[in-house]
Amino acid sequence: MTTIETHAPGATVSPSARTSSVGEWLTTTDHKLIGRSFIGVSLVGLLGGIVVAALLGIERIDAEAAMFDVNAIPQLFSIYRIGLTFIVLIPLLLGVAIAVVPLQLGARSLTFPRLAAAGFWTWFFGSVLVVIAIASNGGPGGGDSRFVRLFLAGMLVVVLGLAAAAGSLATTILTTRAPGMNMRRVPLFSWSALVGSLGLLVVLPALAGALLYTYVDYQYGRAGFGGNVGVNNWIGFGFSQPATFVYAVTAFGFAAEVIAVASGRRLPMRGVVFTGMGLVAISAALGTVIQQPAGISRNISNFSIGDWFSDVLPYAMFNLLPILGGFIVIAVGGLALRGRPKITVPLVFALLGALMVFVGMLANAVYLIGDAQLAGTVFEEGTWLCIVYGAVLSAMGAVTYWGAKLWGRLIPDKLVAPVAILGFIATALAAFPYFVAGFAKQPANASEFDYSGPQNVWNGLSAAGHVLMFLTVVLFVGLALRSFRKGAEAGDDPWDGHTLEWATSSPAPYANFTDVHTVASPEPLLDLKPRRRD
Amino acid sequence: MLALPSAAPPAPKRQTFVGTALGCVAAGSLVGAMLALWMLFRTEAVDSAGQWVPKGIKIPMVPANTILLCFVLILVFAQWTVYAAKNEARSHTALGLALVGIIGAAIVNAQAYIYARMKLPILGKNPTAYNTMFYAITGTFLLLMIIGIGFTLVTAFRYMGGRTSDRELIAAHALYWYFLSALFFAVWFVVYVTK
């Protein structure tokens, strides 16, 4: 058998050398740089979003003391929800996938890399337009009609950009794999990226359709879509559950990937894990586009057979199936971690992130039970926060894990481990008080309310959670920037990985691999390692 | 140092075809969502006001039906290009692509004719949701048509430029027109027939 050195020769042009000029960066087709651009911009957006979230939390501590003008509150809620979903959650996870998936597949580049690059720039400029519009009294419920139009147009641009990048990613996974890598041998994270990007290709265009109608109606007639006040009614599904399950599904893929590596063994029941991730993405995407009310609105004890079909069946299909999918991934991961897993910081990030996303799914199932009387309360915001911040934790873990391959250097475990714990505490603190406040009937998206109970405590705790999350992100970004410039060199395979990305040099060269590898199992590097240990 | 077996670089695996198919999925979701909202508004309008199409507006069915027939022709010619390319009949392939492009342009013209005949105001004293939604959904379809014509032009230029072995692009081109035909059938039935 012919064997090759997996380490790319030193003569290969490094990414940093190739992209030394701004012009080259602007026109790059290197998937690693496109992915890093998505990650970098969305982390900046994350900091802005958390600041707004913290301000809204503080505003809600004392319902009578108004920090902001009453007309500014809807705008702040809009930028908080829309920003953290479309400028942070989707592009952050999409960016990680774009940077990593071709390496995992043994591909030299993305398929249609210019489409992905165009997607990044389209999304970036669309995001700028959206922020400008909302800051200028546009956005849902905004008072300036010019900027409401700009907001709708900007959102359309954002959605198109994200869909373009998702299309490039999905095509890569379906068509550009190493010899021998059939779909059953695709790495776990790449599989989650596939089902996630296919989900995006279903959900985002549906959102674009609603945006198009809303824009044309707002521009010309304002006859059917409720003008500025009605905007959220038509596009709100794009930043609510179950759409967010689709956006966050790669958190499960990352967890499965890192669990397998930490256990040092092949992940058992790969097909079942694939099915679990598929269930999350497909049932949530269908639930989003079908738009059938998927809540149990009547008293369960009085259900007729017809109610089971009209209420329980859609509820189960669009809310319980994703939970089943998430549970499968977590359960199989738990089985794999029996024994003596190697506890690494990416594993901690991955487990805590996937756990929070899963808690968000469970909470959404509770929210939709009519008897709980949670509709219109902040309980939904807590659910959404669990998913968004949980996915952010996963993305931080992914940057810690694959940063070694993208930048060639490691973030020190001792420094970043407390950040992972702090992020988990921040997420729980930001989201869980809203679960309690939801049961106490605190209204959603409102700064003025009056209900029995220590409302200032719940809102104060949540605001503190946002502040801690801000601190988490600042610490993480600071550590990453310092480590990826001056940190310890990672080596080619610092985590004892199983998949092809660890078979090339760190940082990966421009075309990823000097030779094309043949794959004979889902864990090609693990096949070699027992022999090496012997 | 780990070593993996080396291999010859794999041949591209129908990237254009799969990419086009995914683009069709996305466009289907876009138009599907718009049709769903159209039907929702129509039902509400009929239930509340008894009518959906504004008074005095007549939908010209002749050009709408002509578009549908044009799509049948497009399907035949798009499939002909696939067959001709497979049999390396260069002139037939070029003729098929040209006919697809010309009929596509005719469909755009027919849609413009529908706009002219309907005289449906987008702005007026009593604007209705029908007006804006009609222009939004047919305009979106028109955009997909223009993308299709662009696809035909690119395919024709590449083929005529000598890349005659690139049959995958021709197949992807046919797939896109098959998809557009199915999509227009849905638009025709919901927007023009059920009104």
Structural class of chain A: mainly alpha
Q: What is the CA-based Rg of chain A, rounded?
A: 23 Å
CATH superfamily of chain B, please? Cytochrome c oxidase, subunit III, four-helix bundle
Give the proportion of residues in helices of chain B. Answer: over 70%
Shape of chain A: globular
General shape of chain B: elongated
CATH third-level topology of chain A: Cytochrome C Oxidase, Chain A
Main pleated sheet of chain A = none
Total number of β-strand segments of chain B? 1
List segments of chain B where confidence is low: pLDDT < 50 over at least 5 consecutive residues: none
Series of secondary-structure elements of chain B, N-terminal to C-terminal: EHHHHH
Counted up, domains of chain B total 1
Q: Give the averaged pLDDT of chain A, no decimals.
A: 89
Strand content of chain B: under 5%
- Number of helical elements of chain B: 5
CATH domain fold name of chain B: Four Helix Bundle (Hemerythrin (Met), subunit A)
Percentage beta strand of chain A: under 5%
Q: Spell the H/E element sequence of chain A.
A: EHHHHHHHHHHHHHHHHEH
What summary fits the major beta sheet of chain B?
A: none
| Most residues in contact, chain pair and counts | A-B, 57 and 43 residues
